[in-house]
Amino acid sequence: MSLDGILHRFDREVEKMGVRVKDADQMKVLDNVFDEVTLLALYRLVHKKHISVIGGSISTGKEANVFYGEKDGRPIAIKIYRIRSANFKSMSEYINGDPRFASVRGTRKEIVFTWTRKEFANIQRAREADVPVPEPLVFDRNILLMEFLGSQERPYPQLRVADFEDPAGVYEFVTSMMKKLYREAHLVHGDLSEFNILYGDHHPYIIDLGQAVTPDHPRAHTFLVRDIKNITRFFSRYCDVREERDVFIDIVGTERLEP
Questions:
Q1: pTM for the structure as a whole
Q2: Phi, psi of 103, deg, nearest 5
Q3: Tens digits of per-residue pLDDT, 194-248?
Q4: Residue-range domains of the chain with CATH
Q5: d(CA 56, CA 153)
Q6: Active-site residue numbers?
Q7: Beta strands 150-151 and 203-206: pairing type?
């Protein structure tokens, strides 16, 4: 069956279950997102009543698209990892060496499924450590449902374009959350920058934790140094910042600074 046929069948089936599909035309043109595997996972989530409204795209990232949705009136984010265009090698770099997923081997599709499960687990760990991240709700295959961070169907802006009155305070908050992520959630974000921090309700939210690794990952400290460099570079435009080495030592509790 063609993609158009699959989408038409999907529309019919979800309508039978009382699910509204907003911006259906926008969804249909994204054929690199809505392949048969993804539509099956989406159908399963709808069938289990995790989704009652499917809206339009709110974000397009390197590996995934995020769509607006609702569950019984509650706004949610529907994050869909693209199977056909996912960067298999990049994902493997963060999965290989993570003891939680040491046994994972296989196809691009299986790596993407693991990545989705990994992000769900990472967000759970971060929330348990009281790091401001979206609440994870459920996942199926390459789809992750989580709390929608925004208002009136519009997501909070990325930090890079947000208006914040106290740059020094936001900088200290972000670096303290990096420390809490490392010491209490036992995670290194691995791709932290002004692009994956949202700003709303007068404070930042950290997003996109799919690549986050545990401190015993062989490249964890290398990733942490890169995160620190990104945050230092961004905030140095707005306020005084600490030396990168000092931030690293504060987070890790060691004087060993890896290049």
A1: 0.86
A2: -90, 0
A3: 999 999 989 999 999 999 999 999 899 999 999 999 999 999 999 999 999 999 9
A4: 3-151 (3.30.200.20), 156-252 (1.10.510.10)
A5: 9
A6: 191, 208
A7: unpaired
